[in-house]
Amino acid sequence: MVTVTAMPPEKWRQTVTEEKTLDNYVIPHTNGQLAGCPSCRRIFGGDKAFDAHRVGSHGVGRKCAENPQAVGLRLDSRGFWGKPFKGVKK
């Protein structure tokens, strides 16, 4: 049995100095753990975050959100966009 202790958000430290994009990072074969967008060139921490950054109706007017933070995403410590954990302020 493994015990996992959660670190309180106030002790987290974001150390990213640069957002990773498809222009400056090659996505390794990670079995769906990362998703890159060919349109906006951003890299996301998974399929759910990738889907969240797409706005508009399917088929008509679907596009990338200009500001990922506006759709609830945040830049994580690795430089990828993702959904924050529950209970974490955006």
SSE order and pairing:
Blueprint: E1 35-36, E2 43-44, H1 47-52, E3 54-55, E4 63-64, E5 74-75, E6 81-82
Antiparallel strand pairs: 1-2, 3-4, 5-6
Can you describe what's shown?
The protein is 7% helix and 13% strand. With 90 residues, the chain is mainly beta. It has one domain. The protein has a two-stranded antiparallel ribbon with strand order 1-2. It has a two-stranded antiparallel sheet with strand order 3-4. A hairpin with a 5-residue loop joins strand 5 (74-75) and strand 6 (81-82). The longest helix is centred in the middle third of the chain and has 6 residues, at 47-52. The termini are far apart. Residues 1-7 have low confidence and may be disordered.
Features:
mainly beta, single chain, two-stranded antiparallel ribbon, 90 residues, disordered N terminus
Characterize this entry briefly.
Strand 5 and strand 6 (81-82) form a beta hairpin. This protein is 7% helix and 13% strand.
Weakly predicted, low-confidence segments? 1-7
Task: Write down the domain tally.
Answer: 1
Mean pLDDT: 77
What general form does the structure show?
globular
Widest sheet: strand ordering:
1-2
